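ASSEMBLY PREDICTION REQUEST
Request ID: AP-0331
Submitted by: J.K., bench scientist
Number of chains: two
Total residues: 460
Priority: normal
Notes: Please return the full assembly, not individual chains.
Input sequences:
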Amino acid sequence: MAYTYDYPRPAVTVDCVVFGLDPTDCLQVLLIQRWLDPFAGQWALPGGFVRHQEGLVQAAHRELREETGIADLFLEQLQAYGQPQRDPRGHTVTVAFYALVNLWNYQVRAATDAKQARWWPMDRLPALAFDHDVIVQDAIATLRTTIRHRPIGFELLPAKFTLTQLQRLYETVLARPFDKRNFRKKLLKLDILVALDEKETNVAHRAAQLYRFDQAKYLERQQTEFNFDL
Amino acid sequence: MAYTYDYPRPAVTVDCVVFGLDPTDCLQVLLIQRWLDPFAGQWALPGGFVRHQEGLVQAAHRELREETGIADLFLEQLQAYGQPQRDPRGHTVTVAFYALVNLWNYQVRAATDAKQARWWPMDRLPALAFDHDVIVQDAIATLRTTIRHRPIGFELLPAKFTLTQLQRLYETVLARPFDKRNFRKKLLKLDILVALDEKETNVAHRAAQLYRFDQAKYLERQQTEFNFDL
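STATUS: Completed
Returned structure:
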Protein backbone atom coordinates (compact mmCIF):
# COMPACT_ATOMS: atom_id res chain seq x y z
CA MET A 1 0.00 0.00 0.00
CA ALA A 2 1.19 3.47 -0.73
CA TYR A 3 2.35 5.49 2.23
CA THR A 4 -0.03 8.36 2.87
CA TYR A 5 -0.04 11.06 5.46
CA ASP A 6 -2.78 11.00 8.10
CA TYR A 7 -2.17 14.26 9.97
CA PRO A 8 -4.32 17.32 9.16
CA ARG A 9 -3.08 18.94 5.97
CA PRO A 10 -2.20 22.63 5.69
CA ALA A 11 -4.52 24.66 3.47
CA VAL A 12 -2.94 25.82 0.20
CA THR A 13 -3.55 29.28 -1.23
CA VAL A 14 -2.09 31.47 -3.97
CA ASP A 15 -1.45 35.24 -3.82
CA CYS A 16 -0.63 37.64 -6.64
CA VAL A 17 1.57 40.73 -6.55
CA VAL A 18 0.65 42.63 -9.73
CA PHE A 19 2.82 45.69 -10.26
CA GLY A 20 1.33 48.33 -12.54
CA LEU A 21 3.38 50.92 -14.36
CA ASP A 22 1.96 54.39 -14.41
CA PRO A 23 4.50 56.64 -16.12
CA THR A 24 3.13 59.71 -14.32
CA ASP A 25 3.60 58.25 -10.85
CA CYS A 26 5.57 55.64 -8.92
CA LEU A 27 5.08 51.89 -9.27
CA GLN A 28 1.60 50.71 -8.25
CA VAL A 29 0.38 47.46 -6.68
CA LEU A 30 -3.03 45.91 -7.24
CA LEU A 31 -4.83 45.31 -3.94
CA ILE A 32 -8.29 44.20 -2.90
CA GLN A 33 -10.25 45.11 0.18
CA ARG A 34 -11.53 42.02 2.00
CA TRP A 35 -15.24 41.51 2.64
CA LEU A 36 -14.82 38.72 5.15
CA ASP A 37 -12.91 37.76 8.22
CA PRO A 38 -10.10 37.30 8.94
CA PHE A 39 -8.98 40.89 8.26
CA ALA A 40 -12.45 42.01 7.06
CA GLY A 41 -12.20 45.53 5.63
CA GLN A 42 -8.41 45.36 5.32
CA TRP A 43 -6.45 45.53 2.11
CA ALA A 44 -4.70 42.41 0.84
CA LEU A 45 -3.17 40.81 -2.23
CA PRO A 46 -5.68 39.17 -4.57
CA GLY A 47 -5.60 35.42 -3.96
CA GLY A 48 -7.38 32.50 -2.40
CA PHE A 49 -7.60 28.75 -1.91
CA VAL A 50 -6.27 26.33 -4.51
CA ARG A 51 -9.13 24.08 -5.59
CA HIS A 52 -9.13 20.31 -5.80
CA GLN A 53 -7.07 19.20 -8.85
CA GLU A 54 -6.23 22.79 -9.77
CA GLY A 55 -2.69 23.84 -10.76
CA LEU A 56 -1.00 26.71 -8.92
CA VAL A 57 -0.77 29.14 -11.85
CA GLN A 58 -4.29 28.22 -12.87
CA ALA A 59 -5.53 29.04 -9.34
CA ALA A 60 -3.64 32.35 -9.38
CA HIS A 61 -5.21 33.34 -12.71
CA ARG A 62 -8.69 32.34 -11.52
CA GLU A 63 -8.42 34.32 -8.28
CA LEU A 64 -7.10 37.40 -10.08
CA ARG A 65 -9.95 37.23 -12.58
CA GLU A 66 -12.56 36.63 -9.90
CA GLU A 67 -11.40 39.30 -7.50
CA THR A 68 -10.12 42.02 -9.80
CA GLY A 69 -11.41 41.29 -13.32
CA ILE A 70 -7.85 41.07 -14.64
CA ALA A 71 -6.99 38.28 -17.08
CA ASP A 72 -4.20 37.24 -19.43
CA LEU A 73 -1.11 38.41 -17.70
CA PHE A 74 2.18 36.61 -17.36
CA LEU A 75 2.65 35.43 -13.78
CA GLU A 76 6.06 34.39 -12.49
CA GLN A 77 6.33 32.41 -9.31
CA LEU A 78 7.94 34.27 -6.45
CA GLN A 79 8.08 31.64 -3.67
CA ALA A 80 6.02 29.73 -1.11
CA TYR A 81 5.35 31.05 2.40
CA GLY A 82 4.50 28.49 5.05
CA GLN A 83 5.10 29.94 8.50
CA PRO A 84 2.40 28.07 10.52
CA GLN A 85 1.05 31.24 12.23
CA ARG A 86 0.74 33.38 9.11
CA ASP A 87 -3.03 32.80 8.77
CA PRO A 88 -5.33 33.01 11.85
CA ARG A 89 -7.64 30.38 10.28
CA GLY A 90 -4.90 27.79 10.72
CA HIS A 91 -1.81 26.37 9.04
CA THR A 92 -1.82 27.71 5.47
CA VAL A 93 0.89 27.54 2.82
CA THR A 94 0.62 30.21 0.15
CA VAL A 95 2.43 30.27 -3.18
CA ALA A 96 3.04 33.85 -4.31
CA PHE A 97 3.25 35.02 -7.94
CA TYR A 98 4.17 38.38 -9.42
CA ALA A 99 3.67 40.25 -12.67
CA LEU A 100 4.51 43.64 -14.14
CA VAL A 101 1.92 45.23 -16.42
CA ASN A 102 1.10 48.55 -18.03
CA LEU A 103 -1.75 49.57 -15.79
CA TRP A 104 -3.49 51.54 -18.54
CA ASN A 105 -4.17 48.23 -20.29
CA TYR A 106 -6.08 46.72 -17.39
CA GLN A 107 -9.54 47.69 -16.24
CA VAL A 108 -9.86 46.72 -12.59
CA ARG A 109 -13.20 45.90 -10.98
CA ALA A 110 -13.91 44.21 -7.64
CA ALA A 111 -15.84 40.92 -7.51
CA THR A 112 -16.56 37.80 -5.37
CA ASP A 113 -15.08 38.22 -1.89
CA ALA A 114 -13.37 41.54 -2.70
CA LYS A 115 -15.21 44.68 -1.59
CA GLN A 116 -12.99 46.93 -3.69
CA ALA A 117 -10.04 46.44 -6.02
CA ARG A 118 -7.63 49.25 -6.94
CA TRP A 119 -4.06 50.21 -7.67
CA TRP A 120 -2.05 51.61 -4.77
CA PRO A 121 1.23 53.51 -5.17
CA MET A 122 4.14 51.42 -3.84
CA ASP A 123 5.31 54.23 -1.55
CA ARG A 124 1.88 54.74 0.04
CA LEU A 125 0.61 51.18 0.63
CA PRO A 126 -1.94 50.63 3.40
CA ALA A 127 -1.29 48.07 6.16
CA LEU A 128 -1.88 44.66 4.58
CA ALA A 129 -3.63 41.53 5.86
CA PHE A 130 -1.68 38.35 6.77
CA ASP A 131 2.05 38.55 5.86
CA HIS A 132 1.24 40.29 2.58
CA ASP A 133 3.52 43.24 3.34
CA VAL A 134 6.49 40.83 3.45
CA ILE A 135 5.37 39.20 0.19
CA VAL A 136 5.14 42.61 -1.54
CA GLN A 137 8.64 43.55 -0.33
CA ASP A 138 10.06 40.24 -1.56
CA ALA A 139 8.33 40.70 -4.91
CA ILE A 140 9.71 44.20 -5.46
CA ALA A 141 13.22 43.01 -4.55
CA THR A 142 12.93 40.13 -7.03
CA LEU A 143 11.50 42.39 -9.75
CA ARG A 144 14.39 44.85 -9.31
CA THR A 145 16.97 42.06 -9.48
CA THR A 146 15.30 40.56 -12.52
CA ILE A 147 15.28 43.74 -14.60
CA ARG A 148 19.04 44.04 -14.09
CA HIS A 149 19.45 40.74 -15.99
CA ARG A 150 16.62 40.81 -18.51
CA PRO A 151 15.38 43.68 -20.65
CA ILE A 152 11.92 45.10 -19.92
CA GLY A 153 9.61 47.41 -21.79
CA PHE A 154 8.36 45.31 -24.66
CA GLU A 155 4.86 44.85 -23.28
CA LEU A 156 4.92 48.06 -21.26
CA LEU A 157 5.72 50.80 -23.78
CA PRO A 158 3.93 51.76 -27.01
CA ALA A 159 5.38 50.15 -30.16
CA LYS A 160 7.31 53.37 -30.90
CA PHE A 161 8.82 55.19 -27.95
CA THR A 162 11.47 57.71 -26.99
CA LEU A 163 14.54 56.96 -24.90
CA THR A 164 13.10 59.31 -22.27
CA GLN A 165 10.03 57.08 -21.97
CA LEU A 166 12.24 54.01 -21.60
CA GLN A 167 14.39 55.76 -18.99
CA ARG A 168 11.27 56.76 -17.01
CA LEU A 169 10.14 53.15 -17.04
CA TYR A 170 13.43 51.98 -15.49
CA GLU A 171 13.36 54.88 -13.04
CA THR A 172 9.81 54.00 -12.01
CA VAL A 173 10.61 50.34 -11.35
CA LEU A 174 13.93 51.00 -9.63
CA ALA A 175 12.61 54.12 -7.84
CA ARG A 176 15.69 56.20 -8.53
CA PRO A 177 16.88 58.65 -11.16
CA PHE A 178 19.53 57.87 -13.76
CA ASP A 179 22.01 60.02 -15.54
CA LYS A 180 20.57 60.53 -19.03
CA ARG A 181 23.80 60.10 -21.01
CA ASN A 182 24.94 57.09 -19.04
CA PHE A 183 21.55 55.40 -19.28
CA ARG A 184 21.41 55.88 -23.04
CA LYS A 185 24.93 54.62 -23.60
CA LYS A 186 24.29 51.46 -21.60
CA LEU A 187 20.90 50.80 -23.14
CA LEU A 188 22.10 51.25 -26.70
CA LYS A 189 24.97 48.87 -25.95
CA LEU A 190 22.42 46.13 -25.20
CA ASP A 191 21.68 46.24 -28.91
CA ILE A 192 17.93 45.64 -28.57
CA LEU A 193 16.72 49.00 -29.93
CA VAL A 194 16.14 50.08 -33.51
CA ALA A 195 16.26 53.82 -34.24
CA LEU A 196 13.33 54.74 -36.46
CA ASP A 197 13.26 57.33 -39.23
CA GLU A 198 10.60 59.14 -37.21
CA LYS A 199 10.25 61.66 -34.46
CA GLU A 200 7.61 62.35 -31.84
CA THR A 201 4.67 64.46 -32.95
CA ASN A 202 2.42 66.87 -31.05
CA VAL A 203 4.97 67.79 -28.43
CA ALA A 204 5.70 71.24 -27.08
CA HIS A 205 9.43 70.53 -26.62
CA ARG A 206 11.90 69.58 -29.35
CA ALA A 207 10.61 66.34 -30.92
CA ALA A 208 12.69 63.33 -29.84
CA GLN A 209 13.82 60.38 -31.92
CA LEU A 210 11.51 57.35 -31.82
CA TYR A 211 12.73 53.79 -31.29
CA ARG A 212 11.26 50.32 -31.42
CA PHE A 213 12.47 47.06 -29.90
CA ASP A 214 14.23 44.56 -32.14
CA GLN A 215 12.01 41.64 -31.15
CA ALA A 216 14.47 38.88 -32.10
CA LYS A 217 17.36 40.47 -30.19
CA TYR A 218 15.09 41.35 -27.29
CA LEU A 219 13.99 37.72 -26.92
CA GLU A 220 17.60 36.57 -27.25
CA ARG A 221 18.56 38.97 -24.46
CA GLN A 222 15.81 37.49 -22.30
CA GLN A 223 17.62 34.15 -22.54
CA THR A 224 21.23 35.22 -22.17
CA GLU A 225 21.69 36.96 -18.88
CA PHE A 226 23.46 40.26 -18.74
CA ASN A 227 24.28 42.76 -16.06
CA PHE A 228 22.63 46.10 -16.69
CA ASP A 229 24.80 47.91 -14.25
CA LEU A 230 22.99 51.22 -14.00
CA MET B 1 -17.65 33.82 10.63
CA ALA B 2 -14.39 33.43 8.84
CA TYR B 3 -14.56 32.12 5.31
CA THR B 4 -13.00 28.68 5.10
CA TYR B 5 -12.53 26.32 2.24
CA ASP B 6 -14.49 23.06 2.20
CA TYR B 7 -13.06 21.22 -0.81
CA PRO B 8 -10.43 18.49 -0.26
CA ARG B 9 -7.04 20.10 0.34
CA PRO B 10 -3.94 19.19 -1.64
CA ALA B 11 -1.23 17.43 0.36
CA VAL B 12 1.89 19.54 0.99
CA THR B 13 5.39 18.09 0.79
CA VAL B 14 8.96 19.39 0.69
CA ASP B 15 11.84 18.09 -1.45
CA CYS B 16 15.55 18.84 -1.18
CA VAL B 17 18.11 19.07 -3.96
CA VAL B 18 21.45 18.86 -2.16
CA PHE B 19 24.40 19.37 -4.51
CA GLY B 20 27.69 17.98 -3.26
CA LEU B 21 31.06 19.15 -4.49
CA ASP B 22 33.62 16.47 -5.09
CA PRO B 23 36.69 18.14 -6.55
CA THR B 24 37.81 14.89 -8.20
CA ASP B 25 34.56 14.40 -10.08
CA CYS B 26 31.55 16.30 -11.42
CA LEU B 27 28.82 17.82 -9.27
CA GLN B 28 26.88 15.24 -7.23
CA VAL B 29 23.26 15.11 -6.08
CA LEU B 30 22.04 13.43 -2.90
CA LEU B 31 19.31 10.87 -3.65
CA ILE B 32 17.42 8.28 -1.67
CA GLN B 33 15.99 4.99 -2.84
CA ARG B 34 12.33 4.65 -1.87
CA TRP B 35 11.13 1.73 0.26
CA LEU B 36 7.45 2.25 -0.40
CA ASP B 37 5.00 2.83 -3.18
CA PRO B 38 4.51 4.91 -5.20
CA PHE B 39 7.81 4.40 -7.03
CA ALA B 40 9.05 1.73 -4.57
CA GLY B 41 12.70 0.92 -5.32
CA GLN B 42 13.18 4.05 -7.42
CA TRP B 43 15.53 6.91 -6.63
CA ALA B 44 14.10 10.25 -5.56
CA LEU B 45 14.95 13.50 -3.82
CA PRO B 46 14.88 13.34 -0.02
CA GLY B 47 11.61 14.86 1.16
CA GLY B 48 8.17 14.14 2.53
CA PHE B 49 4.97 15.48 4.00
CA VAL B 50 4.86 18.76 5.90
CA ARG B 51 3.48 18.08 9.37
CA HIS B 52 0.71 19.92 11.15
CA GLN B 53 2.00 23.35 12.32
CA GLU B 54 5.42 22.74 10.81
CA GLY B 55 7.24 25.41 8.78
CA LEU B 56 8.49 24.59 5.28
CA VAL B 57 12.22 24.95 5.98
CA GLN B 58 11.77 23.07 9.25
CA ALA B 59 10.06 20.21 7.38
CA ALA B 60 12.84 20.15 4.78
CA HIS B 61 15.53 19.93 7.48
CA ARG B 62 13.62 17.19 9.31
CA GLU B 63 13.14 15.08 6.19
CA LEU B 64 16.80 15.46 5.20
CA ARG B 65 17.93 14.42 8.66
CA GLU B 66 15.50 11.50 8.82
CA GLU B 67 16.17 10.13 5.37
CA THR B 68 19.87 10.86 4.88
CA GLY B 69 21.36 11.73 8.28
CA ILE B 70 22.41 15.17 7.00
CA ALA B 71 21.88 18.17 9.27
CA ASP B 72 22.86 21.83 9.50
CA LEU B 73 23.01 22.93 5.94
CA PHE B 74 21.77 26.16 4.46
CA LEU B 75 18.67 25.50 2.35
CA GLU B 76 17.42 28.06 -0.17
CA GLN B 77 13.92 27.81 -1.52
CA LEU B 78 13.74 26.93 -5.21
CA GLN B 79 10.00 27.05 -5.94
CA ALA B 80 6.70 25.23 -5.46
CA TYR B 81 5.46 22.57 -7.89
CA GLY B 82 1.72 21.93 -7.96
CA GLN B 83 0.75 20.24 -11.20
CA PRO B 84 -2.24 18.13 -10.00
CA GLN B 85 -1.02 14.87 -11.66
CA ARG B 86 2.56 15.03 -10.38
CA ASP B 87 1.90 12.51 -7.56
CA PRO B 88 -0.10 9.30 -8.20
CA ARG B 89 -1.41 9.41 -4.59
CA GLY B 90 -3.38 12.54 -5.47
CA HIS B 91 -3.09 16.30 -5.69
CA THR B 92 0.18 17.23 -3.96
CA VAL B 93 2.00 20.55 -3.85
CA THR B 94 5.71 20.28 -3.13
CA VAL B 95 8.02 23.10 -2.13
CA ALA B 96 11.56 22.41 -3.33
CA PHE B 97 14.75 23.61 -1.63
CA TYR B 98 18.37 23.42 -2.72
CA ALA B 99 21.79 23.59 -1.11
CA LEU B 100 25.42 23.30 -2.16
CA VAL B 101 27.79 21.54 0.23
CA ASN B 102 31.28 20.08 0.33
CA LEU B 103 30.35 16.42 0.22
CA TRP B 104 33.41 15.38 2.21
CA ASN B 105 31.88 17.14 5.21
CA TYR B 106 28.69 15.10 5.20
CA GLN B 107 28.34 11.48 6.20
CA VAL B 108 25.28 10.09 4.47
CA ARG B 109 23.28 7.20 5.88
CA ALA B 110 19.81 5.97 4.91
CA ALA B 111 16.96 5.96 7.45
CA THR B 112 13.14 5.90 7.87
CA ASP B 113 11.44 5.34 4.52
CA ALA B 114 14.69 5.48 2.54
CA LYS B 115 16.22 2.13 1.60
CA GLN B 116 19.52 3.72 0.58
CA ALA B 117 20.92 7.24 0.46
CA ARG B 118 23.90 8.20 -1.68
CA TRP B 119 25.51 10.84 -3.86
CA TRP B 120 25.00 10.48 -7.59
CA PRO B 121 27.08 12.30 -10.22
CA MET B 122 24.95 14.95 -12.00
CA ASP B 123 25.80 13.56 -15.42
CA ARG B 124 24.82 9.98 -14.52
CA LEU B 125 21.59 10.38 -12.56
CA PRO B 126 19.14 7.46 -12.52
CA ALA B 127 15.50 7.95 -13.60
CA LEU B 128 13.81 9.75 -10.73
CA ALA B 129 10.40 9.30 -9.09
CA PHE B 130 7.60 11.88 -9.51
CA ASP B 131 8.72 15.07 -11.34
CA HIS B 132 12.03 15.05 -9.47
CA ASP B 133 14.08 15.12 -12.67
CA VAL B 134 12.46 18.48 -13.55
CA ILE B 135 13.13 19.79 -10.05
CA VAL B 136 16.81 18.79 -10.25
CA GLN B 137 17.17 20.52 -13.63
CA ASP B 138 15.53 23.69 -12.29
CA ALA B 139 17.79 23.61 -9.24
CA ILE B 140 20.99 23.28 -11.26
CA ALA B 141 19.89 26.15 -13.54
CA THR B 142 19.19 28.35 -10.50
CA LEU B 143 22.47 27.38 -8.83
CA ARG B 144 24.41 28.27 -11.99
CA THR B 145 22.66 31.63 -12.29
CA THR B 146 23.23 32.36 -8.62
CA ILE B 147 26.97 31.77 -8.66
CA ARG B 148 27.31 34.33 -11.45
CA HIS B 149 26.01 37.00 -9.05
CA ARG B 150 27.32 35.87 -5.69
CA PRO B 151 30.75 34.49 -4.78
CA ILE B 152 31.00 30.84 -3.70
CA GLY B 153 33.68 28.82 -2.06
CA PHE B 154 33.73 30.06 1.49
CA GLU B 155 32.13 26.95 3.00
CA LEU B 156 33.36 24.64 0.24
CA LEU B 157 37.13 25.09 0.17
CA PRO B 158 39.70 24.68 2.96
CA ALA B 159 40.59 27.91 4.80
CA LYS B 160 43.74 28.24 2.65
CA PHE B 161 43.46 27.27 -0.99
CA THR B 162 45.09 27.74 -4.36
CA LEU B 163 43.54 29.55 -7.32
CA THR B 164 43.54 26.22 -9.13
CA GLN B 165 41.31 24.74 -6.44
CA LEU B 166 38.95 27.71 -6.72
CA GLN B 167 38.90 27.43 -10.51
CA ARG B 168 38.09 23.71 -10.27
CA LEU B 169 35.20 24.51 -7.97
CA TYR B 170 33.67 26.91 -10.52
CA GLU B 171 34.37 24.45 -13.32
CA THR B 172 32.65 21.67 -11.39
CA VAL B 173 29.50 23.70 -10.71
CA LEU B 174 29.31 25.20 -14.20
CA ALA B 175 30.45 21.97 -15.88
CA ARG B 176 32.84 23.69 -18.28
CA PRO B 177 36.51 24.60 -18.40
CA PHE B 178 37.82 28.16 -18.02
CA ASP B 179 40.85 29.85 -19.38
CA LYS B 180 43.29 30.02 -16.45
CA ARG B 181 44.55 33.57 -17.00
CA ASN B 182 41.11 35.00 -17.65
CA PHE B 183 39.59 33.25 -14.66
CA ARG B 184 42.30 34.55 -12.33
CA LYS B 185 42.09 38.10 -13.64
CA LYS B 186 38.30 38.20 -13.13
CA LEU B 187 38.40 36.57 -9.73
CA LEU B 188 41.11 38.83 -8.36
CA LYS B 189 39.11 41.82 -9.60
CA LEU B 190 36.25 40.79 -7.30
CA ASP B 191 38.57 41.78 -4.47
CA ILE B 192 37.48 39.01 -2.10
CA LEU B 193 40.79 37.12 -1.94
CA VAL B 194 43.80 37.72 0.27
CA ALA B 195 47.16 36.41 -0.97
CA LEU B 196 48.96 34.66 1.88
CA ASP B 197 52.65 34.61 2.59
CA GLU B 198 52.52 30.84 2.15
CA LYS B 199 52.70 28.21 -0.53
CA GLU B 200 51.31 24.72 -0.89
CA THR B 201 53.34 21.98 0.75
CA ASN B 202 53.79 18.29 -0.09
CA VAL B 203 53.10 18.69 -3.79
CA ALA B 204 55.00 17.08 -6.64
CA HIS B 205 54.56 20.09 -8.96
CA ARG B 206 55.79 23.65 -8.30
CA ALA B 207 54.13 24.83 -5.07
CA ALA B 208 51.35 27.34 -5.75
CA GLN B 209 50.49 30.48 -3.82
CA LEU B 210 47.86 30.05 -1.12
CA TYR B 211 44.91 32.41 -0.65
CA ARG B 212 42.14 32.92 1.86
CA PHE B 213 38.82 34.71 1.54
CA ASP B 214 38.48 38.19 2.98
CA GLN B 215 35.37 37.41 5.01
CA ALA B 216 34.10 41.00 5.29
CA LYS B 217 34.45 41.66 1.56
CA TYR B 218 33.07 38.23 0.72
CA LEU B 219 29.91 38.92 2.75
CA GLU B 220 29.61 42.37 1.22
CA ARG B 221 29.83 40.80 -2.24
CA GLN B 222 27.03 38.40 -1.28
CA GLN B 223 24.82 41.46 -0.79
CA THR B 224 25.79 43.61 -3.75
CA GLU B 225 25.13 41.71 -6.92
CA PHE B 226 27.79 41.49 -9.57
CA ASN B 227 28.13 39.81 -12.89
CA PHE B 228 30.92 37.26 -12.91
CA ASP B 229 31.03 37.05 -16.64
CA LEU B 230 33.22 34.02 -17.11
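REVIEWER COMMENTS: Chain A has a mean pLDDT of 89.
SIGN-OFF: pending second reviewer
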